[in-house]
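Write out the 3D structure for:
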Amino acid sequence: GVQEGKFKYNGDERFIDYPESLILEALSIKKARNQFDLKNINILFPDIRNEKNFLDLKKIISLNGIKRSINFKFYCEISIPSILFDLEHFDNNEVDGFVLNYEKFIKLLTFRSIIREGDHKIMIDIIKKISEICRRKKLDFLIYINELIPELIKEIIPLGLNGIIFTNIPNEKDIQFISEIENKNKDLFKKE
């Protein structure tokens, strides 16, 4: 189990220190996919700090018979700012894409509990850079957000992300707003 006391392990560090927890979670996903035919489940490696940690985790589950394939994707969560230094090292032979945990990342980046408007502007620049890297390397890029931030949505939809994941169900007004932005940028969503 996770060590009690002074330190709390999260994400990749927890799985590196306690690989049995990663194996248990990955085998549960494999069972759900195979036994219950839930083929839309993929693996998101949480709180990845760098490429080496991701490759270590991938090796742990690979040794236990869990392999990435065209129908079973591996994603890295971007929630810890240090991963930005390693994004260029990842390629589509080792990972299918990235999921940015917006709220967690911005709080760790700014080290504030209350986010300021200027912080969102910095995040938009970071999102643009990640999007450009993913597009060039042919990797998926999704953003996980807790609440609709209109200025953010206006800036990120034109980037042609693979998706925005909301933790709360958007209300009718929010859905209408997103639809309007998508319609203004519909050429971006056409398949080549």
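Confidence is low (pLDDT under 50) at residues 1-7.
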